[in-house]
Structure formats: structure tokens, C-alpha cells
């Protein structure tokens, strides 16, 4: 070191030895580079910033390296974060050139990293609180309350009954007899709680936030979390009162009550005030965003000072922030990526690197009862969660999944474990074992849940829910989906055609029950929420101009068709790649016969092509695969003739191309509903190949004829109905015939799929732009088609075995 000091310029710091160098890490922030000394380049790690940079770099190198392999077997990233921490822990002292006092255990060298980790966990927990929808979490009936109380109380009470079991056998060298019951209390408490931020994170990892199962799990964890908070306050008060002083216990309890009151009466109203003063469509001022973050950090410092877990204050402030736009979504957009992808991995790795796996092996006999207690409470809580699910008549598979989720452990559990270690309520061996338990828990349980959960199971159709099989006096229940403002006009135009005034001909016909679902891409929420638009809706939501426009348009449509049409409106906040589940949930719950959704292809007012929305098309593909009823995809070019109302005297020409198959049967059934509208002129065109039908599929051919014969016999004498047949041979002939039909009609209704042997589609399949519309639908929605015709592509409900 003396040689290196002699080589250094006069302004460089002179370091007498390496020990002083490393001890100066807290005082010397930046080094002068790796060439500060040629003989010992590692001298740069005696400075805080290079040391912190190296620690963070090693953490992410190990995370990426481990997850590179674990992701192929479906292991969550959270496991990779913990593995990186274990690899950086004491067990690798002999495997790396860097000593543990620099990277893992040295308090001076680790101070900056600890600070980053604490701040990262505060940020992440705060954002999880912001994203959580409080109204949905706590308003789902008594089922989640009963399951939450059962899982928490039974686990806590029964586990505590074993707290003093064989307590006299504890080795005093391992832990004093006075602290051993406290250690077991910590273990039972951690096992009994199911924390809302942890379950919310898991639900998103599993991609089931808007499933009924995911929402139930969120609700159960919310009530369990509430019980855990009450238990934490009581245990903390009793422990402080007994082992510290009554004065400190009373002070801490009063401080927490004050914090709760401040959050309810100051922070929450202030956040709501920010939401109210922010103009619609405008961004929240940065001053408010940074002020909100600093409030969360201050609350965490406050709870830490009064002997509570540091993330508690941040989470409580996050729960006080109104979810959704503008404030919640702005906080997520600005801080989510940094907190989730940078700070969160560092926090998990830093907490885990304190574990000593070798120490667990040496102290195995001393912690054997703790290991038994963890396993016993795990089984106990699983049973206490599973049995109430069965009592509430949940399917067995879903009950197993709920019980699994209730036993899941994650990042907040690690904070509790670390806090117990810092307060000397856990031995280091038990701390390491609990870290290993969380690691295995986080790796195994999500994998089991993924294997058990099948999102399609809920929508299996044992009952026919389509238009074709509706009775003559049944209501036609339709779910219409809106993604953008330009979808409103086309949907209402189509519904106008389906509705008709009451007369002697259709006096016994059921009404059209329309459910309007406005889909909004999720921002600033932890899980999706479905908002009904009625008198109970929040005023803030109704101030949205798009939602107001939608409601006014459909209310006017209902008034124009009073007595024959009913309208209910909803807004679903959802993740774009999970919107299909929200649509299916609503259709399933409302016993819908048909879902009508826009195609995603946008047209300008003059009928020219503008763009394709990939997200909407992806949603439509998922709906076609799993919808619980029939589905229609509407490609509307905004034809002015389709915009009819009760004062209109014009005629709308509706054409149906019939080739054969279930989807065409459904298309004809929809056309029959439209035919009852006096403004509709219906034309059915049947395409025939001119060949004898396949005898193995003769039953479908018979149904084809039966459907058409019923249509012709019903409307044979009607002036506004016509039926023609055309012999079509080859792909070019199909294209020509479809274009001719498009030029003669304002709206075309076609089935999506047809019997492959019924017509020769040579070359057409290979050139489809929109495969979700089928061959004929793709031709009618083509950019090259020089007409203003709109097309409704129909797929009948799939029946599952």
C-alpha cells in the first residue's frame, strides 16, 4: 500500500493498509478507478460506490444465470432472487475471491446495499397497496370472511397449543428457555397469516387476476391480512410491555393509532383531493407524485421508529391512495418498472444472503421441533382453508387451489422473518430454515396451482346457449363489447336491426336483453374490477366523457325501443391479454346467448382502411376458443344505411351466405331475428359445390336443408325476403360471388367455419389477413373490397364433452 501511495498523485487519498481502506467504505464514496493501485486493484472496493455497484452487479448476474434455467420448468423469478441471495451468502466464502465481509456480512461494506434494499421493499410494497382495489377486496359476501377466519384462527390457536411442547429439551447454548417460546410464536404467526400484497403478487404471476378463483383468493387474503394486522399489534404490544417496558408499549400503541387516524383523515382525503383537481385526461403533477412517495417513506420510517415492520407504513399509505387513474395509474407508470425490476430483486437477495445453510446442518437437532412445527401448521392451515371451501360448495379442484394459495409465502413474509431476527426473536439457524422454507414454498406451490387450474373449466357448456336453440318466446340475451369510442355506432346499428316494434306477428317474442361491456386497459390496479353503471356508481367514474357517451347512446337506444329492449352497462378494468376472461365471466353469469365484439379493424368515415388493433384481435381469438356461448365478430365500415331508428323509413339490405355447418345455422337464426324488423330486407344465398355430399357427414347436410326449409316456409310469401342458390367451383369463383353479394347488401352475416368438403377454397386460406373471421368473413372485411358493407361473422357455441 505504501508503494501504491507513492505512485498516486498528491490529491489521491493515502491509505495505510487494506483494513483501513475497507473500513473507509462508508466515508469514501467514489474511487479513482481500478488503476488506483496496480498491485491490488481490489482497493477500489474500499469505497462505498464501487462496492455497491459490484454487489448489485453480482446480484443480477446470479439472478439472470439461475433464472435462465429455472424458467424452462416454470419456476417464478422470485425463486431466482432468493437463490442469488443464498449464493452470495456465507456458504460461498471458499468459492469466490471476495471475502464475505465485503459482500455479505460486513456491516460497513453492506450499509449502502442494505439501504437500497430497504428503500426498494418500501417502494414495492407501497405500489402493491396502491394497485389493490379495496372495494372489490372487501365486498364479496361472507364466504371469504369465513374461510379467512377459519384459516387464521384455527392455525393460530392450534399452533400456539404446541408452543411449550418439550420446551425443557431446548439446549440453553442454542437459545435461552425464556426466548424459545417467542421463537415458536413467531413461526406459528408467520404460518397463520396470508398477506394481501403477497397473494396479489402471486395471482398476477399466475395470470388469473380476473378469474373468479383469483378474486376469491384476493378477498380471503384481504380479510386474513386484517386479522394479521390486529394480531401483530396485540403481540407487539404484549411483547414490548413484558420484555421492554409498559411505557414503551403504550407509546408504540398510541403511535400506531395516530398513524391510522392520520391516514384516514388526512392522507386519504388529500389523495382524493389530488384526484378531483386533476383535469380529466391530464397527468397528475409530478410534485404530487413525489410527495406521495415521500409520504410512504416517512410512514415507513415512522413505523420503524415505533418498533413495527418497516413496510407496514408504506402499505397502509398505499391502501389509502385511490386506485386507478389518474393518481394510481400515474404512480404505477412512473415507478412500477424501477421498483419491480431493480429494487425488488435487490431487496429479496439482500434478505436471503444473511442465511447460513451450513449453520442449519450443524444446528439441525436444535431446530428439529421448529421444522416439525412448520410442517404441522402447513397441513393444519391447508385443511382449515380446504374444508370451508367444500362447505361453500366450491369444486374440489378449486378448493385445493384456494388452500394452496392460502399457504403461499412471499416477500412480506421475508420482511417479518428478517424483523424477528433483528429483534433477537429468532435464532440464525431458524431464520435460515424459514428462508429455505419460503424458497421451496414459492417454487412448488405456484407450479402445483398452474397444473391444477384450467381457466376453461368454468365455461364448459353442458347447456346449449346460442340463438338457434332459443324458444320462440325466450329473451335474446346479448353481450356487446366496446374497446374504443368508434365501436359504439356500429354496435347500436346492429342492435337496431335485431330489435323490432311489437305487432301481431311477434307479440309473443321475448325482449332483447343487451349487456354493454366497456373494456379499459388496466392501469394502477392490482387486479381487475367490474363496475356496473347504475345509481350506485361512483361520481368520478361517470365523469369520464367516453363512458358518458356510451351510456347516453345506449340509453337513447333503449328509449327508442322501449318495451322490446333492456340495457345494462358495465366497465371492466382489465389487463389486455386477460380481457377475454372478463368477457366470458360476464357472459357466463348473465346466461348470455351471444357475445358481439368488434373485429379490431378500423375504418375511416369515408370507408377507407385505417389500422388493425392487434390487442382486440388477440382477445377475439381467445373468445372464439373459450366463449361460453355463441360469438359474433362485427366488422363495421360505418354504412349510413345501418343507422336506423324508429323514425327511419329506409330499408336495410341484410344478406346471409350459407355454405353449411353449425356456424351457418347460427347465422340464419340471427337473420330470422332481424327479419322481424320491418326495415330489414333479408336475402339468403346458398353456395353449392354441385357435388353429392359426403355420406359420413350426411346428418349435417340434412340439418342444413332443415334449417333452410324452415326459413323458406316461414317467409316464402314475404316481400322483404328472397332465397337463391349458386353453384360455386374454385377459389376465384368464391371470391367473385362474395364480392357480388357484398355490393348488393348493407350487412352480411356469415358463419366462421364451414365443412371443408362443401366448397373448394383453393388459395383463399393461404391469403387470409384476419384468420379469426374465417375465409368468407376475411373476404368481406378485406381492405381491397370497394364497398361499405359491414359483416357479422358468427361462431356457434362449442359443446364440450
TrEMBL record:
<dbReference type="GO" id="GO:0015297">
    <property type="term" value="F:antiporter activity"/>
</dbReference>
<dbReference type="GO" id="GO:0006813">
    <property type="term" value="P:potassium ion transport"/>
</dbReference>
<feature type="transmembrane region" description="Helical">
    <location>
        <begin position="185"/>
        <end position="204"/>
    </location>
</feature>
<dbReference type="GO" id="GO:0012505">
    <property type="term" value="C:endomembrane system"/>
</dbReference>
<feature type="transmembrane region" description="Helical">
    <location>
        <begin position="78"/>
        <end position="96"/>
    </location>
</feature>
<comment type="similarity">
    <text>Belongs to the monovalent cation:proton antiporter 2 (CPA2) transporter (TC 2.A.37) family. CHX (TC 2.A.37.4) subfamily.</text>
</comment>
<keyword id="KW-0630">Potassium</keyword>
<keyword id="KW-0472">Membrane</keyword>
<keyword id="KW-1133">Transmembrane helix</keyword>
<feature type="transmembrane region" description="Helical">
    <location>
        <begin position="145"/>
        <end position="165"/>
    </location>
</feature>
<dbReference type="GO" id="GO:0016020">
    <property type="term" value="C:membrane"/>
</dbReference>
<keyword id="KW-0812">Transmembrane</keyword>
<dbReference type="Pfam" id="PF23259">
    <property type="entry name" value="CHX17_C"/>
</dbReference>
<dbReference type="InterPro" id="IPR057291">
    <property type="entry name" value="CHX17_2nd"/>
</dbReference>
<dbReference type="Pfam" id="PF23256">
    <property type="entry name" value="CHX17_2nd"/>
</dbReference>
<feature type="domain" description="Cation/H(+) antiporter C-terminal">
    <location>
        <begin position="653"/>
        <end position="797"/>
    </location>
</feature>
<dbReference type="GO" id="GO:0098662">
    <property type="term" value="P:inorganic cation transmembrane transport"/>
</dbReference>
<protein>
    <submittedName>
        <fullName>Uncharacterized protein</fullName>
    </submittedName>
</protein>
<dbReference type="InterPro" id="IPR057290">
    <property type="entry name" value="CHX17_C"/>
</dbReference>
<dbReference type="GO" id="GO:1902600">
    <property type="term" value="P:proton transmembrane transport"/>
</dbReference>
<feature type="transmembrane region" description="Helical">
    <location>
        <begin position="253"/>
        <end position="275"/>
    </location>
</feature>
<dbReference type="Pfam" id="PF00999">
    <property type="entry name" value="Na_H_Exchanger"/>
</dbReference>
<keyword id="KW-0813">Transport</keyword>
<dbReference type="InterPro" id="IPR038770">
    <property type="entry name" value="Na+/solute_symporter_sf"/>
</dbReference>
<feature type="domain" description="Cation/H(+) antiporter central">
    <location>
        <begin position="515"/>
        <end position="638"/>
    </location>
</feature>
<dbReference type="GO" id="GO:0006885">
    <property type="term" value="P:regulation of pH"/>
</dbReference>
<feature type="transmembrane region" description="Helical">
    <location>
        <begin position="399"/>
        <end position="421"/>
    </location>
</feature>
<feature type="transmembrane region" description="Helical">
    <location>
        <begin position="116"/>
        <end position="133"/>
    </location>
</feature>
<feature type="transmembrane region" description="Helical">
    <location>
        <begin position="287"/>
        <end position="305"/>
    </location>
</feature>
<feature type="transmembrane region" description="Helical">
    <location>
        <begin position="370"/>
        <end position="392"/>
    </location>
</feature>
<feature type="transmembrane region" description="Helical">
    <location>
        <begin position="44"/>
        <end position="66"/>
    </location>
</feature>
<keyword id="KW-0406">Ion transport</keyword>
<keyword id="KW-0633">Potassium transport</keyword>
<feature type="transmembrane region" description="Helical">
    <location>
        <begin position="433"/>
        <end position="453"/>
    </location>
</feature>
<feature type="domain" description="Cation/H+ exchanger transmembrane">
    <location>
        <begin position="61"/>
        <end position="452"/>
    </location>
</feature>
<dbReference type="InterPro" id="IPR050794">
    <property type="entry name" value="CPA2_transporter"/>
</dbReference>
<dbReference type="InterPro" id="IPR006153">
    <property type="entry name" value="Cation/H_exchanger_TM"/>
</dbReference>
<feature type="transmembrane region" description="Helical">
    <location>
        <begin position="216"/>
        <end position="241"/>
    </location>
</feature>
Amino acid at each position: 500500500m505504501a508503494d501504491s501511495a507513492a505512485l498516486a498523485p498528491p490529491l489521491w487519498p493515502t491509505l495505510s493498509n487494506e483494513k483501513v481502506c475497507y473500513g473507509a467504505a462508508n466515508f469514501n464514496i467514489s474511487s479513482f478507478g481500478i488503476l488506483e493501485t496496480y498491485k491490488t486493484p481490489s482497493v477500489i472496493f474500499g469505497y462505498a460506490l464501487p462496492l455497491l455497484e459490484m454487489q448489485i452487479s453480482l446480484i443480477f448476474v446470479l439472478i439472470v444465470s439461475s433464472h435462465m434455467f429455472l424458467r424452462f420448468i416454470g419456476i417464478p423469478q422470485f425463486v431466482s432472487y432468493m437463490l442469488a441471495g443464498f449464493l452470495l451468502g456465507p456458504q460461498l466464502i471458499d468459492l469466490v475471491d471476495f471475502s464475505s465481509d465485503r459482500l455479505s456480512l460486513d456491516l460497513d461494506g453492506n450499509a449502502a446495499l442494505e439501504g437500497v434494499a430497504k428503500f426498494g421493499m418500501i417502494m414495492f410494497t407501497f405500489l402493491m397497496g396502491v394497485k389493490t382495489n379495496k372495494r372489490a377486496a372487501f365486498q364479496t359476501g361472507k364466504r371469504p370472511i369465513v374461510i379467512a377466519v377459519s384459516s387464521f384462527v384455527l392455525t393460530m390457536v392450534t399452533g400456539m397449543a404446541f408452543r411449550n411442547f418439550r420446551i425443557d429439551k431446548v439446549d440453553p447454548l442454542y437459545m435461552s428457555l425464556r426466548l424459545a417460546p417467542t421463537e415458536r410464536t413467531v413461526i406459528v404467526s408467520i404460518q397463520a397469516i396470508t398477506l394481501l400484497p403477497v397473494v396479489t403478487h402471486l395471482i398476477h404471476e399466475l395470470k388469473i387476476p380476473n378469474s373468479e378463483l383469483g378474486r376469491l383468493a384476493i378477498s380471503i387474503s384481504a380479510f386474513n391480512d386484517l386479522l394479521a394486522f390486529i394480531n401483530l399489534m396485540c403481540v407487539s404490544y404484549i411483547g414490548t410491555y413484558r420484555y421492554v417496558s409498559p411505557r414503551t408499549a403504550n407509546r408504540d400503541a398510541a403511535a400506531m393509532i395516530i398513524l391510522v387516524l392520520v391516514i384516514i383523515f388526512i392522507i386519504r382525503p388529500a389523495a382524493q383531493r389530488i384526484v378531483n383537481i386533476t383535469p380529466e385526461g391530464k397527468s397528475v403533477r409530478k410534485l404530487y407524485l413525489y410527495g406521495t412517495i415521500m409520504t410512504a417513506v416517512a410512514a415507513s420510517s415512522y413505523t420503524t421508529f415505533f418498533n413495527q415492520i418497516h413496510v407496514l407504513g408504506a402499505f397502509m399509505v398505499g391502501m389509502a391512495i385511490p386506485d386507478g387513474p389518474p393518481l394510481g395509474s400515474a404512480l404505477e407508470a412512473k415507478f412500477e418498472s424501477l421498483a419491480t425490476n431493480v429494487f425488488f430483486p435487490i431487496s429479496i437477495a439482500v434478505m436471503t444472503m444473511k442465511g447460513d445453510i451450513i449453520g442449519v446442518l450443524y444446528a439441525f437437532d436444535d431446530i428439529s421441533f421448529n421444522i416439525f412445527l412448520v410442517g404441522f401448521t402447513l397441513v393444519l392451515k391447508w385443511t382449515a382453508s380446504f374444508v370451508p371451501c367444500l362447505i361453500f360448495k366450491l369444486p374440489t379442484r378449486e378448493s385445493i387451489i384456494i388452500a394452496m394459495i392460502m399457504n403461499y409465502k412471499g416477500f412480506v413474509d421475508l420482511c417479518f422473518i428478517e424483523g424477528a431476527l433483528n429483534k433477537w426473536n429468532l435464532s440464525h439457524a431458524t431464520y435460515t430454515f424459514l428462508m429455505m422454507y419460503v424458497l421451496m414454498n414459492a417454487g412448488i406451490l405456484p407450479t402445483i396451482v398452474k397444473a391444477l387450474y384450467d381457466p376453461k373449466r368454468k365455461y364448459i357448456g353442458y347447456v346449449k346457449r346460442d340463438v338457434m336453440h332459443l324458444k320462440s318466446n325466450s329473451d335474446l340475451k346479448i353481450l356487446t363489447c366496446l374497446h374504443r369510442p368508434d365501436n359504439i355506432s356500429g354496435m347500436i346499428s346492429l342492435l337496431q336491426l335485431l330489435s323490432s316494434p311489437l305487432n301481431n306477428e311477434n307479440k309473443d317474442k321475448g325482449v332483447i336483453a343487451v349487456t354493454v361491456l366497456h373494456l379499459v386497459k388496466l392501469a394502477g390496479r392490482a387486479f381487475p374490477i367490474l363496475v356496473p353503471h347504475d345509481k350506485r356508481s361512483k361520481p368520478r367514474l361517470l365523469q369520464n366523457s367516453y363512458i358518458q357517451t356510451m351510456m347516453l347512446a345506449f340509453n337513447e337506444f333503449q328509449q327508442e325501443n322501449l318495451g322490446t329492449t333492456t340495457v345494462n352497462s358495465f366497465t371492466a378494468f382489465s389487463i389486455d391479454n386477460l380481457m377475454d376472461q372478463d368477457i366470458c365471466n360476464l357472459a357466463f353469469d348473465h346466461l348470455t346467448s351471444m357475445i358481439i365484439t368488434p373485429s379490431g379493424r378500423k375504418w375511416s368515415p369515408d370507408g377507407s382502411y385505417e389500422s388493425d388493433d392487434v390487442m382486440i384481435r388477440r382477445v377475439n381469438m381467445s373468445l372464439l376458443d373459450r366463449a361460453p356461448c355463441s360469438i359474433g365478430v362485427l366488422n363495421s365500415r360505418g354504412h349510413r344505411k345501418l343507422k336506423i331508428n324508429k323514425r327511419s323509413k329506409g330499408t336495410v339490405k341484410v344478406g346471409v351466405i350459407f355454405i353449411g355447418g353449425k356456424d351457418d345455422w347460427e347465422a340464419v337464426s340471427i337473420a330470422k331475428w332481424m327479419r322481424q324488423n320491418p326495415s330489414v330486407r333479408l336475402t339468403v344465398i346458398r353456395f353449392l359445390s354441385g357435388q353429392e355430399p359426403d355420406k359420413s357427414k350426411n346428418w349435417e347436410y340434412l340439418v342444413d336443408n332443415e334449417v333452410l326449409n324452415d326459413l323458406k316456409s316461414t317467409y316464402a310469401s314475404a316481400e322483404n325476403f328472397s332465397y337463391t342458390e349458386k353453384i360455386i367451383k374454385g377459389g376465384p369463383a368464391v371470391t367473385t360471388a362474395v364480392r357480388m353479394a357484398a355490393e348488393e347488401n348493407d350487412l352480411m352475416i356469415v358463419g366462421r367455419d364451414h365443412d371443408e368438403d362443401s366448397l373448394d377454397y383453393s388459395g383463399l386460406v393461404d391469403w387470409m389477413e384476419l384468420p379469426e373471421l374465417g375465409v368468407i368473413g376475411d373476404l368481406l372485411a378485406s381492405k381491397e373490397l370497394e364497398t361499405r358493407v359491414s359483416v357479422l361473422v358468427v361462431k356457434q357455441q362449442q359443446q364440450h364433452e
